[in-house]
Amino acid sequence: MERELALEIVRVTELAALASAPWMGRGNKNAADDAATKAMRAMFDSVSIQGTVVIGEGEMDEAPMLYIGEKVGSMNGPEVDVAVDPLEGTEIVAKGLNNALSVIAIANQGCLLHAPDIYMEKLAVGPSLAGKLSIEDPIDTTLRKAAEHLHKSIADLTVMILDRDRHESMIKQLRKVGVRIKFLSDGDVAGAMAPAFPETGIDLYVGSGGAPEGVLAAAALKCLGGELQGRLMPANANDYQRCKEMGMDDPFKVLTMDDMVGSEDVIFAATGVTPGEFLGGVRYLPDNRAETHSMVMRAKTRTIRYIKSLHYLPNKPLLAELSMKRR
Ligand SMILES: O=P(O)(O)OC[C@H]1O[C@](O)(COP(=O)(O)O)[C@@H](O)[C@@H]1O
């Protein structure tokens, strides 16, 4: 893929973030998601790819756009797999909380795992722990190994996990071992990426979240030099069958980075919708301007670009059509 594609992709996440941000704190997650999805879909038409959505808004019969299998792009560029989450953290935006992102990952055709929309158990780390831990170890062993590699005491480790009842037993174990826990309300793409940014103070991300979000986070961590190990959690025979139909011989197998993102030729872009651990959110400024904070990275070079853009809103008519007017 041409490196210029990285900048084309970030324009798409920017517009999706700008479309959903007016819904921040208005208690309407579907409207926020809908605006982001429509903006992202419309912007894709100008991106020079022949893309196929492999992670998107749902199956063709569930989602009107950005559904799995949909073709996106201007159809005059490389054939690529596209993973999107136009608004990762719909509830976050509805409630006006932190860590909502608009995200896209693109890789050569056939290189992104087609993950069903079920839970995935995750263990994510930054570059200093990449390759050093195993999701198959008991959590206390993992934490002990992490502390050793980071030359920290266990009490100084900070672990991030989604605040969910299903994590009760894991949280008890974390408390017993004595680490700090930083709870996440939603948005585990940002959560899994956080350990790759030393300024977050987060050493590990653990627990279960969406499988599609796992693949998006794996793409980001490939660019960041971190690691995500995953294990799908089919809850019943139907889930198990869906995994099989998506080409997984053993749906319970540990998924490595290469299983989820089978190429170094991957681009990841994210724009903050609300403020987060490593990206600012959309900010409205005087004179009809809005500021966005994005990052775009390629695994090949591992360059991380932060892009702060000042948008002049009257020149973005699509936004006026898609989102409610600011009051
Ligand atoms: O809320 P659950 O069922 O625990 O699911 C966790 C998943 O939901 C999210 O927190 C938010 O997902 P949405 O943006 O689709 O609302 C994901 O980041 C995470 O993977």
UniProtKB/TrEMBL annotation:
It holds the Pfam family FBPase_glpX. It comes from the Bacteria. InterPro entries: FBPase_class-2/SBPase (IPR004464). Pathway: Carbohydrate biosynthesis. Keywords: Carbohydrate metabolism, Hydrolase, Manganese, Metal-binding. CDD domains: FBPase_glpX. One of its GO terms (molecular function) is fructose 1,6-bisphosphate 1-phosphatase activity. It catalyses: beta-D-fructose 1,6-bisphosphate + H2O = beta-D-fructose 6-phosphate + phosphate. Belongs to the FBPase class 2 family. This is Fructose-1,6-bisphosphatase. It comes from Paenibacillus thermoaerophilus. The lineage of its organism: Bacteria, Bacillati, Bacillota, Bacilli, Bacillales. The gene is glpX.
